[in-house]
């Protein structure tokens, strides 16, 4: 059974936040103000072949999920290593999106179910269009926000956007659970040539807050992402992703009710 569209989008929300230019303020200063400014992320007008991202999702309290996300725009594949906190410890997850399949693994999985990886079908749109946005996002085309700011720090520029009265819901919301009303704060940080260097999205309601931050660690590094060997994979037709989200604090994370808004530069 394929993962539902809502659940699939929720699982990919962290990655989508980075791919769709939802920026974070990068606390960077010019290390050599009197000399020639070198841009470590310079793409020279060409879309990146790959991107390595550091992603953090937090609730504003002690809970946070950390992930290293590797994206290959040419092969349309994603690999992520997540560390999810539990009550008294944390657990590591390896995720791979290859050929419209999501593969998931965690330590000791083979001792429990006799296989190293679980898999399920999950659609993934073409990533090439997102790579174009990394080169130089169309900031002037972003609309639907009531407040906009621009801050410069060395050769980094941060564009901030905010909006109130947005319908928000929990990632683990059950059927029939009514959405709440919250606000969005979104910023995009670019380098000297206008390329994206970092991103963040803060979703707030009266009772909770969720912050997603994504920072570009590098562009165009080797990203060899492969599906696990078939002998180590067990296809899973149950909704194990929903079970996973429901059994961890991830179920309390806030997301916009319309998850497609994370994949667009326009909020209606």
Report on this structure:
By secondary structure, this protein is mostly beta strands. It has a single domain (5-26, 49-260), classed as Clam (outer membrane lipoprotein receptor (LolB), chain A). Helices cover 13% and strands 39% of the residues. Strands 1, 2, 3, 4, 5, 6, 7, 8, 9, 10, 11, 12 and 13 form a 13-stranded mixed sheet that branches. The longest helix is centred in the middle third of the chain and has 8 residues, at 128-135. The model is unreliable at 1-36 and 260-268 (pLDDT under 50).
Summarize the topology.
Layout: H1 5-11, H2 13-19, E1 50-58, E2 64-72, E3 77-85, E4 90-98, E5 101-105, H3 109-113, E6 117-121, H4 128-135, E7 147-153, E8 156-170, E9 180-190, E10 196-204, E11 209-219, E12 233-235, H5 240-246, E13 254-256
Parallel strand pairs: 6-12
Antiparallel strand pairs: 1-2, 1-11, 2-3, 3-4, 4-5, 5-6, 7-8, 8-9, 8-13, 9-10, 10-11
Short description:
This protein is mainly beta and 268 residues long. It is built from five helices and 13 strands. Residues 1-36 and 260-268 have low confidence and may be disordered.
Write out key terms for the chains shown:
disordered N terminus; disordered C terminus; mainly beta; globular; outer membrane lipoprotein receptor (LolB), chain A; 268 residues; 5 helices; single chain
Which secondary-structure class do the elements indicate? Answer: mainly beta
Radius of gyration: 19 Å
User: Any idea what the shape is?
Assistant: globular
Helical segment tally?
Answer: 5
Question: What's the helical proportion of residues?
Answer: 10-25%
- By DSSP, the count of extended strands is 13
């Amino acid at each position: 059974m394929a993962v539902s569209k809502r659940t699939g989008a929720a699982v990919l929300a962290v990655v989508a936040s980075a791919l769709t230019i939802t920026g974070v303020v990068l606390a960077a200063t010019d290390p050599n103000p009197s000399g020639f400014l070198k841009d470590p992320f310079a793409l020279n007008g060409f879309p990146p072949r790959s991107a390595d991202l550091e992603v953090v999702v937090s609730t504003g309290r002690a809970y946070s999920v950390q992930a290293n996300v590797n994206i290959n725009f040419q092969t349309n594949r994603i690999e992520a290593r997540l560390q999810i906190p539990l009550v008294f410890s944390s657990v590591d997850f390896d995720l791979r999106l290859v050929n419209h399949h999501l593969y998931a693994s965690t330590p000791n999985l083979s001792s429990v179910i006799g296989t190293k990886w679980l898999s399920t079908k999950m659609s993934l749109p073409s990533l090439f269009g997102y790579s174009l946005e990394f080169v130089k996002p169309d900031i002037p085309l972003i609309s639907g926000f009531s407040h906009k700011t621009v801050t410069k720090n060395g050769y980094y520029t941060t564009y901030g956007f905010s909006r109130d009265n947005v319908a928000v819901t929990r990632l683990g919301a059950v059927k029939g659970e009514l959405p709440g009303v919250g606000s969005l704060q979104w910023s995009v940080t670019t380098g000297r040539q206008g390329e994206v260097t970092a991103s963040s999205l803060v979703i707030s309601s009266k009772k909770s807050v969720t912050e997603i931050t994504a920072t570009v660690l590098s562009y165009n590094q080797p990203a060899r992402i492969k599906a696990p060997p078939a002998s180590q994979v067990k296809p899973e037709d149950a909704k194990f992703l929903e079970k996973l989200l429901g059994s961890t604090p991830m179920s309390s994370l806030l997301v916009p009710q319309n998850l497609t808004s994370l994949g667009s530069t326009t909020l209606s």
